[in-house]
Automatic annotation (TrEMBL):
Signal peptide: none annotated. One of its GO terms (cellular component) is cytoplasm. This is NAD-dependent epimerase/dehydratase family protein. Residues 5-232 form the NAD-dependent epimerase/dehydratase domain. It comes from the Bacteria. GO terms for molecular function: aldehyde dehydrogenase (NAD+) activity. It comes from Allosaccharopolyspora coralli. SUPFAM superfamilies: NAD(P)-binding Rossmann-fold domains (SSF51735).
């Protein structure tokens, strides 16, 4: 059944993939841009509106006018050139901006809100690959802890509100065209500039999500699927010692150097060391079972190869 869908974060990496998919599926789409200049680039939708999610009054006006059945939240600020500032701005957006959006959605009579969340925010202990029951690491150090607490607050707002059905899509590391893993992205520069080494005995696991799958997951949960949190990741969580050299080779960079744990702690930021040495992967079992979802990109191997026009292997 065609639905009226309101998309926040429409100008972002996931948003740009999502809008044409929604239209192709026959839905009526209103796209939110934060600024007039970025709004001008949004085409092929039924309506474009401008508001900052940190401004509750402006947001309420545009959501009410759009009268959506479903509100989708794909806004973040990770693309900020300063990574820590980006995490802080994303944390404020997730905690406060999400609350504004849910309030606006309820006032406008929407029945479902779908938000972008994270599958790499779990406490890194226990099993290798974690499901949605694992606790979020709200006590993590520094900006990461701040970000995880904001994610927990956002999910609490969305998943426990009696007046709406809430769905949190917990994405893994987002890769694909337009992301930091693309050949003009910051991860590519880091790896090819030998600025992302391996750590001796590092057993950090990364779960990846291709942007096509990040967008496709939204279409799966617009209607019918049980409210709740779902890991939206590929089928192959990968150790850093596996994905990083593969990415470097496919991306045309040098093989990564290897640091001792002491060297890594002295030379790299806390989050990078955490990701390389102790982060756990996530399983998509719940989403597969509940929604029948299957990733278009089941393994990062094929996804990375496609990024660089190569055959996987
Ligand atoms: N999403 C993740 O979990 C994640 C994690 C780590 C790294 N990354 C990387 O970060 C890059 C960005 O990916 P992304 O899709 O998350 O973000 P993005 O492409 O930067 O998109 C974010 C969207 O949110 C909007 N937005 C930001 N602040 C807003 C506000 N206050 N009110 C309304 N809208 C607002 C942006 O609008 P404007 O265009 O106006 O700013 C944009 O449409 C990619 O390279 C990705 O690989 C993403």
């Amino acid at each position: 059944m065609p639905l009226r869908v309101f998309v926040a974060g429409a100008t972002g990496v996931v948003g740009r993939h999502l809008l044409p998919e929604l239209r192709r599926a026959g839905h009526h789409v209103t796209a939110l841009a934060r600024r007039e200049d970025t709004a001008a680039g949004l085409r092929g939708v039924d309506g474009v509106v401008v508001a900052d999610m940190m401004d509750p009054g402006a947001l309420r006006r545009v959501v009410t006018e759009a009268a959506p059945d479903v509100v989708v939240h794909q806004a973040s600020a990770f693309s900020d050139t300063d990574a820590n500032a980006g995490m802080q701005r994303t944390a404020r957006l997730r905690e406060t901006g999400s609350r504004h959006l849910v309030e606006a959605a309820i006032e406008a009579g929407a029945r479902r809100v779908v938000v972008q969340s994270m599958a790499d925010a779990y406490v890194p202990n226990g099993h290798d690959v974690l499901d949605e029951e694992a606790p979020l690491w709200t006590e993590a150090p520094g900006y990461w802890g701040e970000l995880v607490r904001s994610v927990a607050a956002m999910e609490e707002t969305v998943l426990t509100h009696a007046e709406i059905d809430g769905v949190a899509l917990r994405y893994g590391a987002l890769y694909g065209p337009g992301t930091e893993y693309a050949s003009d992205g910051s991860m590519h520069r880091r790896v090819c500039g030998s600025a992302l080494p391996l750590v001796e005995d590092g057993i950090g696991l990364m779960s990846f999500t291709h942007v096509d799958d990040a967008a496709g997951a939204v279409l799966e949960v617009l209607d019918g699927v049980e409210p709740g949190a779902y890991n939206v990741v590929d089928n192959e969580p990968a150790e850093s010692s596996e994905w990083l050299p593969t990415y470097a080779r496919m991306g045309g960079g040098p093989a990564p150097l290897t640091l001792t744990p002491e060297q890594a702690r002295a030379q790299l930021d806390w989050l990078t060391v955490h990701q390389l040495t102790e982060q756990r992967g996530a399983t998509n079992f719940r989403f597969r079972e509940t929604a029948g979802w299957r990733p278009v990109w089941p393994s990062w191997r094929e996804g990375f190869a496609a990024l660089f026009d190569l055959w996987p292997g």
